[in-house]
Design a protein that fits this description.
CATH topology: tt1808, chain A
Shape: globular
CATH class: Alpha Beta
Number of strands: 13
Oligomer: single chain
Helix content: 25-40%
Number of domains: 1
CATH superfamily: tt1808, chain A
Structural class: alpha+beta
CATH architecture: Alpha-Beta Complex
Length: 226
């Protein structure tokens, strides 16, 4: 008697509705699919990535990677899948997290990150409504500490921090430099980023890393107290 043929799950399609478990199962059956996300139970598929988007994402990943390199207990990731609930599997462009053993709030579920990283960065071109709408509300609700949206087309940065009234913009200093609240020493020169001046971005970051606040933060992480 012949063996019954294996019936594969339907391919993921934009707009499908499902749970996180079904989403992951069906995605893992599609090795040719490199990117997808589930927000509020709805599947979103990739769109073409422009040169400007790629350049901004590369610059911001380098910036956060250099911060993590200088801050033991922190780690950056690019385009990782996150399990954030029964119907939530976002795929943020870049994240910076405090490792669980250093007291961070995120964890691991199977093969994927879980919970909320401390910082999320999204580069917004074709995903404007999602990044400012459903994803912003999700990140706010799940407890992301800081949310940075970079808009290459408008040469604009919006950095949100939580308040009793929800996410509110973090304003740069009079010198144009953004200074993270959650990650002492994480400084970003918005003008240098807009020019894609990587040396300028790194120079300002190094100024932040040289502050007593960053030194104290690394000492706290070493003691498991973020």
């Amino acid at each position: 008697m012949p063996l019954a043929a294996t019936i594969s799950s339907p391919r993921l399609l934009e707009g499908d509705s499902m749970t996180s478990d079904e989403f992951i199962r069906r995605w893992e059956e599609m090795p040719d699919l490199k990117w997808a996300e589930l927000i509020d139970g709805i599947v979103y598929m990739p769109s073409p990535v422009s040169v400007r988007h790629a350049d901004y994402e590369s610059a911001l990943h380098l910036w956060l990677g250099n911060y993590a390199l200088a801050t033991p207990g922190c780690r950056s990731s690019i385009e990782a899948t996150w399990m954030m609930g029964e119907r939530q599997v976002p795929h943020p462009d870049i994240t910076l997290r405090i490792l669980p053993e250093q007291g961070g709030q995120s964890g691991v579920q199977g093969r994927y990150h879980s919970g909320a990283p401390e910082l999320i960065v999204e580069v917004t071109v074709s995903s404007y409504s999602r990044d400012f709408g459903t994803k912003k509300r999700l990140y706010e609700r799940i407890g992301v500490h800081e949310y940075l949206i970079a808009l290459p087309g408008e040469e604009k940065l919006l950095w949100f921090v939580p308040t009793p009234d929800g996410f509110q913009p973090l304003e740069p200093g009079a010198d144009g430099i953004f200074r993270s609240v959650r990650f002492p020493g994480l400084w970003l020169d918005g003008g240098a980023l807009r020019r894609l001046d990587l040396q300028g971005v790194d120079a300002v970051l190094r100024q932040g890393l040289a502050t007593p606040e960053h030194t104290g933060f690394t000492a706290q992480l070493a003691g498991g107290k973020p």
